[in-house]
């Protein structure tokens, strides 16, 4: 059974508290927070202050996705403000094993994200240690992009690699909606990140519709 982790990148920030309450009422367990530095990806978003605000407001699990260069320099800050999961990009980490160890030493769950062109084989020697592998199903940087269909094969490959040997969860982020989410879950996805599909329109109803498909 997969879970839905709404991405607050698409939320109404003038009414963020109300949006989060609606997500809680819809039975959501996890929030996805995209941190972009304007360098690793062509967009600039939030910092630790937002994560701290959200943590004070809710006890939902906070899944913090660092789309940034030198993420190791900010692990402590994001752990200090309440991140439960911290995901870094394979492409941004020269010493990936060291970064994963730092995240876990601080008591958070460690995730590694793969851009669309990055194969799962690049994670061969860290799969024992990661809690999440995040498949980017769009080129990261902006919400509302079209889902890249080929990423279904990457999800399936990660599911095959996992087998009974590894315990990581497969997360997918980018362009997900009611039409493609079933295929992702059937391919092996455990955590579905959706922004526009959740926050455009009736939040509670949107969560229920996606939830009915993935459970």
TrEMBL record:
Q: Which CDD domains would you find in this protein's record?
A: RPE (cd00429)
This entry's comment on the bound cofactor is: Binds 1 divalent metal cation per subunit.
Active site, UniProt feature = 34 (proton acceptor), 173 (proton donor)
Query: Which pathway does this polypeptide act in?
Result: Carbohydrate degradation
**Reactions catalysed, as given in the entry:** D-ribulose 5-phosphate = D-xylulose 5-phosphate
Cofactors needed by this protein, per the record, are: Mn(2+); Co(2+); Zn(2+); Fe(2+)
Give the enzyme class.
isomerase
Q: What highest taxon heads this organism's lineage?
A: Bacteria
Which terms are listed as keywords in the entry? Carbohydrate metabolism, Cobalt, Isomerase, Manganese, Metal-binding, Zinc
Where substrate binds, per the record, is at 7, 65, 141-144, 173-175, 195-196
> GO molecular function, one example?
D-ribulose-phosphate 3-epimerase activity
Q: What is its EC number?
A: 5.1.3.1
**One GO term of the biological process aspect:** pentose-phosphate shunt
Q: Name one GO cellular component term.
A: cytoplasm
The entry's a divalent metal cation-binding residues are: 32, 34, 65, 173
Name the family the entry cites: Belongs to the ribulose-phosphate 3-epimerase family.
What the protein does comes down to: Catalyzes the reversible epimerization of D-ribulose 5-phosphate to D-xylulose 5-phosphate.
Q: Identify the NCBIfam families for this entry.
A: PRK05581.1-4 (NF004076), rpe (TIGR01163)
Matching entries from PANTHER family are given as: RIBULOSE-5-PHOSPHATE-3-EPIMERASE
What name is this protein filed under? Ribulose-phosphate 3-epimerase
- Where is the organism placed in the taxonomic lineage, from the top? Bacteria, Bacillati, Bacillota, Clostridia, Thermoanaerobacterales
């Amino acid at each position: 059974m997969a879970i839905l982790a709404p991405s607050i990148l698409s939320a109404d920030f003038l009414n963020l508290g109300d949006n989060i309450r609606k997500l809680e009422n819809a039975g959501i367990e996890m929030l996805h927070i995209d941190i972009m530095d304007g360098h690793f990806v062509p967009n600039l978003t939030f910092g630790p202050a937002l994560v701290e605000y959200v943590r004070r407001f809710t006890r939902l699990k906070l899944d913090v996705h660092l789309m940034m260069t030198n993420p190791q320099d900010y692990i402590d800050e994001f752990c200090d403000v309440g991140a439960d999961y911290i995901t870094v990009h394979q492409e941004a980490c020269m010493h990936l094993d060291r970064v994963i160890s730092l995240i876990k030493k601080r008591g958070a769950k460690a995730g590694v994200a793969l851009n669309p062109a990055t194969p799962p084989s690049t994670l061969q020697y860290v799969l024992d240690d990661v809690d999440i592998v995040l498949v980017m199903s769009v080129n990261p940087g902006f919400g509302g992009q079209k889902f890249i269909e080929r990423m279904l094969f990457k999800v399936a490959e990660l599911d095959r690699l996992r087998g009974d040997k590894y315990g990581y969860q497969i997360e997918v982020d980018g362009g997900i909606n009611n039409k493609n989410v079933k295929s992702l879950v059937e391919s092996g996805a455990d955590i579905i990140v959706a922004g526009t599909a959740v926050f455009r329109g009736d939040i509670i109803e949107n969560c229920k519709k996606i939830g009915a498909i993935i459970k």
